[in-house]
């Protein structure tokens, strides 16, 4: 029977940005061939095979992923064994959000400096009159 299904890359939570390519692989430590793999996203079947290519991810790819490894014993196939991997929590964050926040912070700092220089120059000019 199949046993010890795992997903790589680990760890059990994974943070990525929108547009990042993500590939998940499922393998088993124990189990005679043929072993089939089924991928679950938030408990729903999304693909079959040992590799899940998500491509350039977006926020909709966030959630939990698991793989189910299955094999059969005997020619009649009456004995079916399954191994469920631990859940991998994938969190996809918008890439542009952090960049916009930094740009806004830099823009605000520049505006503050311009106003500060204006006040200093204006005060200096006023005192010299």
CATH class identity: Mainly Beta
**Could you state the order of secondary-structure elements as H and E?**
EEEEEEEEEH
Largest sheet features = 6 strands, mixed
- DSSP strand (E) fraction? over 45%
The whole-angstrom Rg is: 27 Å
Report the structural category: alpha+beta
Distance between the termini: 93 Å
GO molecular function: CD4 receptor binding; protein phosphatase binding; sialic acid binding
Domain Ig-like: 1-85
Transmembrane segments: 101-126
Protein name: HMCN2 protein
Secondary structure layout plus pairing:
Elements (H helix, E strand, L loop, with lengths): L2 E6 L4 E5 L3 E10 L5 E6 L2 E5 L2 E6 L6 E11 L5 E6 L3 E6 L1 H33 L2
Parallel strand pairs: 2-9
Antiparallel strand pairs: 1-3, 3-6, 4-5, 4-7, 7-8, 7-9
What are its keywords?
sialic acid binding, 129 residues, single chain, rod-shaped, six-stranded mixed beta sheet, Immunoglobulin-like, three-stranded antiparallel beta sheet, 1 helix
Structure explained in plain terms:
This protein is of the alpha+beta class and 129 residues long. It is 26% helix and 47% strand. The chain has one domain: Immunoglobulins (Immunoglobulin-like). The strands form two sheets. Strands 2, 4, 5, 7, 8 and 9 form a six-stranded mixed beta sheet that branches. It has a three-stranded antiparallel beta sheet with strand order 1-3-6, with no helix packed on it. About 6% of the residues have low confidence.
Quick synopsis:
The protein is an alpha+beta fold.
